[in-house]
Amino acid sequence: CHKSIYEQHLQTGHFHSSQPATEKNIAGSFLQGKNKFAFSPLTFVAMEKRMDSFFQVEYVLGQEKRKSRFDITIGSAKKGQSYLSWKNNSLIQMPVTFFSPESTWSSSPGFSPQKITFNRVVTSRCLECHSTYFKVTSAEGKHPEEFDRAKIMYAVDCEKCHGPAKEHVSFHNEHPE
Question: Which of 39, 52, 103, 122 would be 91's cystine partner, CB 3.0–4.6 Å?
Fold first, then answer.
């Protein structure tokens, strides 16, 4: 019914506010020399492709210490893009974000630019603004919250703000004029 509105929506920040992390969807370079953010002279995080997955990898004194896989992108990349990683059925925000105006990797918002952490929990409250739906499976008050990976609606769709379209469709089916 609203083909042109739908096609315009596909180009908006709302549509790109969250999506599975794929080579096409991840902003920022994974090329050597353009894929690192230094937290100190001795520590950095490198963005690396390994096999068919993408990772943020912490290095201390040149030795790999830990890594986290890019699973979900948050943000349209117009200004920037942050990343989430599954830890069992919970989500964490990764320590490095892509900052689009400078075309560079940076510490994620709210993270210390001097200390690498891979433990910032993502809650359903965080996801409210960046997605249409994430099914919470954990009991109320459990920390960290757990989600059903099969019941996710990425992006912010029309119904998120405008409500269910069922009544709109029913009305126009009954009153085609």
Answer: 122
